[in-house]
Design goal:
single chain; about 400 residues; mainly alpha; Growth Hormone, Chain: A
């Protein structure tokens, strides 16, 4: 891995920073603002969840088209446009005084921060690295892990010093100051042709044109089953992150404990990324897919039954490990399954499914909690969802196996 890093340090730095700054559109960070927004704008948790979910849902309809654009545009153009929109989303939220403006801000940040920016890095690595895709995915995703470890505490500090509105503005300028010169310096050095051969490529035929949703639901049902199975983790994780205040309150903890939990989350995500990055290159993502629900099930079980702060931190560690595993496996899976010519489009469709699931999570979690159900009950339902996810992934794998 060190030799790979030395040889492609420009690509590493570029993709690492992209993954780091994609954190500004993620639920783990936006959840830090929810308490302050509700208090200042006199909103209920359900009101804010509706704005967030609708913004996320609206964003999901753009992602397959954006994926096609990533396939066509240069890395520089794609990144600069995306970073500009993230800055715009931060400005909108900093001035929001109604649910409409909250919706617009969440829409922009979720569309361009949550998925588009990270899709650029994942598509870049998928197209370029072939047989070393797993290891380089691991190194790039250290950026996301670092963001999850330090950004919640960074934003909490900013909010305590300059209040939440100014925190959005300062965060937006921080992204521009780092990403614009980095992109101008590095992006043009990276091509779109494969550097290494892909020894794990399946024998499925590559799409002869951009795959459509009609194709996904008719000719490529196996891909639809896989995308459906992949949504369990982001759905559950988004619900937990957005309702982290209710989670710590139900256990008698404080919000600072949640911020510390993200340190465990980040460290174990790095471990999961590292281990499964090597395993993906050795065994292929196709053979590792069924591990995805395993570690998440342990985390959910601990959140459902544990009451001590130590078990809370261990649970967040397993959550992070699960994310590391999924990042390594899923990003390599689509390149192995269909090749790289239309990888951006396919990943965009996968991202659409993910964002649809994350748009529903705040509504489902807040509704159940508002109805008086305990957080432990909600976690029990999540365990059931993971069982369904395992079955869906198993069926998808069998369909790929018999069609290749």
């Amino acid at each position: 891995m060190i030799e790979l890093l030395k040889k492609h340090k420009d690509i590493f730095l570029f993709s690492f920073l992209i993954m780091f700054f994609s954190g500004f559109g993620q639920s783990f960070l936006l959840g830090q603002y929810f308490f302050h927004i509700k208090k200042d704008l006199l909103l209920t948790g359900t009101d804010l969840s509706i704005a967030y979910s609708l913004g996320t849902l609206a964003a999901s309809f753009n992602l397959s088209t954006i994926g096609s654009i990533i396939d066509k545009w240069s890395w520089k153009k794609s990144t600069l446009v995306t970073v500009s929109f993230i800055f715009l989303g931060q400005l909108i939220l900093s001035q929001a005084n109604s649910l409409l403006f909250l919706f617009l801000g969440f829409y922009v940040l979720r569309c361009f921060g949550q998925m588009t920016l990270s899709s650029i890095a994942a598509t870049l690595i998928g197209k370029v690295f072939g047989g070393h895709r797993g290891k380089f995915n691991t190194m790039a995703y250290y950026g996301r892990s670092l963001a999850e470890g330090i950004l919640p505490s960074f934003v909490a500090f900013l909010i305590s010093v300059v209040m939440w509105r100014n925190s959005f503005i300062l965060s937006g300028f921080f992204i521009l100051i780092i990403m614009v010169p980095t992109t101008l310096l590095l992006a043009d050095r990276i091509g779109k042709s494969p550097i290494y051969a892909d020894k794990n490529r399946l024998k499925n035929t590559s799409p002869t044109k951009n795959m459509s949703w009609k194709d996904l639901l008719s000719k490529e049902k196996k891909a639809f089953f896989m995308m459906l199975g992949f949504t369990a983790l982001p759905f559950i994780l988004t619900g937990i992150f957005i309702q982290q205040g209710d989670l710590v309150e139900s256990r008698g903890f404080e919000m600072k404990d949640a911020a510390l939990g993200f340190v465990f989350f980040s460290c174990f995500q790095i471990i999961g990324n590292t281990i499964f990055g090597f395993l993906v290159d050795r065994f292929g993502a196709f053979n590792l897919v069924l591990f995805l629900p395993l570690f998440l099930s342990v985390a959910i079980f601990l959140l459902m039954t544990g009451s001590s702060l130590q078990l809370f931190f261990i649970a967040f560690g397993f959550l992070g490990f699960s994310v590391g595993v999924q990042n390594s496996v899923v990003n390599a899976f689509w390149a192995e399954a269909y090749g790289t010519r239309c990888l951006g489009r396919i990943k965009g469709m996968d991202s659409t499914m993910v964002v649809l699931s994350t748009s529903l999570a705040p509504l489902v979690f807040s509704f159940l909690l508002d109805q008086g159900f305990s957080f432990s009950f909600v976690m029990g339902m999540c365990l059931g969802l993971l069982g369904v996810s395992l079955i869906t992934l198993f069926l998808g794998i069998r369909m790929f196996k018999f069609s290749s």
